[in-house]
Design brief:
The chain folds into 3 domains: 13-156, DNA methylase specificity domains (Adenine-n6-DNA-methyltransferase TaqI, Chain A, domain 2), CATH 3.90.220; 157-199 and 358-406, Helix Hairpins (Orthogonal Bundle), CATH 1.10.287; 206-356, Alpha-Beta Complex (Adenine-n6-DNA-methyltransferase TaqI, Chain A, domain 2). 27% of the residues are buried. The protein has helices at residues 63-69, 116-122, 126-136, 146-151, 159-203, 211-214, 260-266, 316-322, 326-334, 346-351, 359-401, and strands at residues 13-16, 21-26, 38-41, 46-47, 50-51, 58-59, 76-79, 88-90, 98-100, 104-109, 153-156, 208-210, 215-219, 237-239, 256-257, 270-271, 276-279, 287-289, 297-299, 303-308, 336-338, 342-344, 353-355. With 406 residues, the chain is α+β, with helices and mostly antiparallel strands. The chain is elongated, with a radius of gyration of 27 Å. Helix 5 (159-203) runs antiparallel to helix 11.
Amino acid sequence: MEQVLYKLPDGWEWHSVKKLSHNIQYGHTAKAESNGNAKFLRITDIQDGKIDWQGVPTVSLEEKEISKYALNDDDLIFARSGATAGKSILIKNAPKDAVFASYLIRIVPNKKDIIPEYLSYFFLTPAYWEVVGQNAAGAAQPNINGTKLSEFIVPVAPQGEQKRIVEKLDAVLTRIDTAIEHLQESVTLKNRLLQSALDGQFSAITERMTIESLAEVKGGKRLPKGEKLSDDETEHPYIRVADFTDKGTIDLSGIKYISKEIHEQIKRYVISKDDLYISIAGTIGKTGFVPPELDGANLTENAAKLVIKDKQQLDLSYLYLFTLTSDFSAQAGLATKTVAQPKLALTRLSKIEIPMSSLEEQKSLVSTIEALKSKIHDAEAVLLGKIEDLKYLKASILDSAFKGEL
């Protein structure tokens, strides 16, 4: 998709990023280290439009390489690939001898033609992101390269107008960003409140029993050697850790399948809607319920199922809520072995202790927490709605600014 150009105010002109820049350059290819002679900025060091230079690692370079890749104030740095592809940051207060990594692109604005802050704001506009999104559509890995960046057309106002626009955007967007930050803090606070209530409810129960005394702990099974998962629907879905959500259930949109022949070989490793799943490799401790549509599905070897022995002794929802507590996380963490990747052994998972009360008290605790979750969810939805409104307002203001309507 190409940019949609529109009529500009008198005195404004369309110019390519290439024409507005002295240099468009990829960063240096090297591995970060702890005792190098230059700071080494990577994609992961840019978070929420900020750089914590204290946390940026180093790299060992010769002086000529440092000179070639040295970051200077008013350089614009872009992420080339991944989830943040296209995101940029205007460098300010760069440390001496700081360089940038190969998955970043540097643009050096020509200050004779454009104010760096003005150009930086352009790369936040909906018009820019629409093109980035279209370019990324269908790609296995979203990316943007130097050529694509150089071809972007920027609506350039006269220098005096650029300065006025930057000053106005600085003032207005700072207030919007501050408001968004405060709302996000409120969301975090409400989640902490829920966690505190959850931990408090379980910590008040003194009797404890091990998981193995209450439930069977059984692992899933990997596919037979040489076999692959399929997107084509069969009678045998195969649940992966990638399908686990943060909401205690399974995302049905990306479910893979296996053939009847493969299922016959691993049919003992299925999970039912009456079981609880838990990830035991990679991302440890993701737990949840199996939806009815996946009752009897095959389960990955990177997860286990907890099969309650006596439903008059242990409630499934109570067990699930316990897996969300800090107590469970601490015990699972202590039971974690690190080899090539983190893994929670089934034998160790079995030894985790659960606070136990009567079935009636368990159901009462579940009702209390679910009621609180519902209230917090409603309040969170209001806060998130306000955040989205502010983000829309910010995008609208940026759009107006580069049409000469600010």
